[in-house]
Design brief:
CATH class of the largest domain: Alpha Beta
Helix content: 10-25%
Radius of gyration: 21 Å
Number of domains: 2
Distance between the termini: 49 Å
Number of strands: 17
Strand content: 25-35%
Strand order of the largest sheet: 8-9-10-7-1-11
Order of helices and strands: HEEHEEEHEEHEEEHEHHEEEEEE
CATH architecture of the largest domain: 2-Layer Sandwich
């Protein structure tokens, strides 16, 4: 009689540990956008909150785009690769919504905008040994690929394919992104290299937890209807360009007297519903916005909009959990976990 061995399914805790200790890979499902034409940067300057005037070739940066009313629309990666610009959403947005947003802009003559260009896709891999996977896709010392740099890359199984490797991540660990016109081959090549290093594919739950601990919960949680200031994203605004990009005339500079999105730690296994009231000594001081997946067994991480001055770190607060029991919450600083990549050399 023959028996079949079924591998145990991975959990978000497994994926969390993979990103924190080795290297995890995942497909990027967000819609790619390709812009070509000499005046493409003028188009980007219409809606990105940071100017493209001093963007270097073969680099990538993170930029915030606003709605017409000044609320956040999306966090986007902006790549400059050769004679083209590429955009890739970091926050959740569909191709149709992105198309509608870009259709409202004044596209300069000679500029072409392609949303989800046929055949192109992206795979990412992150973790303290992610650099050892990235080394498989370049013909130089991988330590020479600096943060936010982009280089041409090769796919060993498909020499005719085009690929670009960017050193950029979402977790505070080493991170890389591979864009290719042979996305399936690129993804399989990454998975094979990751497996050789003891890593694994990772799902969205464990990844979202690491991102939240790194200070970018917005990737998974979205903006929850908050303003730029409330979302604690004012650092992504070039305040010298007010009036020059979409929605900027409605922005208000942050002050110490306004409510702000704040991270709080709670005992492991406590679950809170979005909208739950946060209190200090019985006094309402804020509202739960989102709770990160329970992938870190040591504690829960909660994001809440707290009134001033209760968003400072080290305060003892509380909220009722899903069962109606009072649970302690403590305001904490981000990043919450010291990334192993900070002490792991690229070699």
């Amino acid at each position: 009689m023959t028996t079949t061995t079924i591998a145990p399914s991975r959990t978000e805790k497994d994926d969390y540990a993979t990103v924190r200790t080795t290297v995890g890979a995942y497909r990027v499902d967000a819609p790619l956008v390709r812009l070509s034409g000499d005046d493409r940067l003028a188009l980007l300057d219409q809606f990105l909150a940071k100017s493209g005037e001093y963007v270097d070739p073969d680099t990538v940066r993170e930029a915030l785009a606003l709605n017409a009313d000044g609320t956040p629309f999306a966090v986007l990666l902006h790549f400059e690769i050769g004679e083209e610009s590429w955009l890739l959403p970091r926050t959740q947005v569909t191709a149709d919504v992105l198309r509608g947003y870009l259709d409202e802009l004044d596209v300069p003559e000679g500029v072409t905008v392609e949303i989800e260009p046929e055949g192109w896709g992206a795979t990412a891999f992150e973790g303290p040994i992610a650099w050892s996977v990235a080394a498989r896709f370049v013909d130089f010392d991988i330590s020479g690929l600096t943060l936010h740099a982009v280089t041409e890359s090769a796919l060993p199984a498909d020499p005719a394919a085009f690929a670009h490797l960017a050193r950029v991540g979402t977790t505070g660990e080493y991170g890389y992104l591979l864009i290719s016109n042979a996305p399936d081959a690129a993804h399989e090549a990454v998975l094979a290299a990751v497996a050789e290093q003891g890593g694994a594919p990772v799902g969205p739950e464990g990844l979202a937890r690491v991102q939240a601990e790194a200070g970018m919960a917005v990737y998974a949680s979205g903006f929850a209807g908050l303003t730029v200031d409330q979302s604690d994203l004012s650092w992504m605004i070039d305040w010298n360009r007010i009036g020059e990009f979409q929605g900027s005339e409605h922005l208000v500079k942050p002050t110490t007297g306004t409510a702000r999105l704040t991270a709080l730690a709670a005992p492991a296994d406590s679950r809170f519903t979005a909208g739950s009231e946060v209190t200090a000594g019985g006094r309402p001081v804020g509202t739960v916005i989102w709770q990160a997946p329970s992938a870190n067994p040591e504690e829960e991480l909660v994001l809440a909009l707290l009134d001033a001055p209760f968003w400072v770190p080290g305060l003892e607060l509380s909220a009722q959990d899903e069962q109606g029991a009072d649970r302690p919450l403590r305001t904490v600083t981000l990043p919450r976990v010291i990334a192993r990549s900070l002490t792991t050399r690229i070699s």
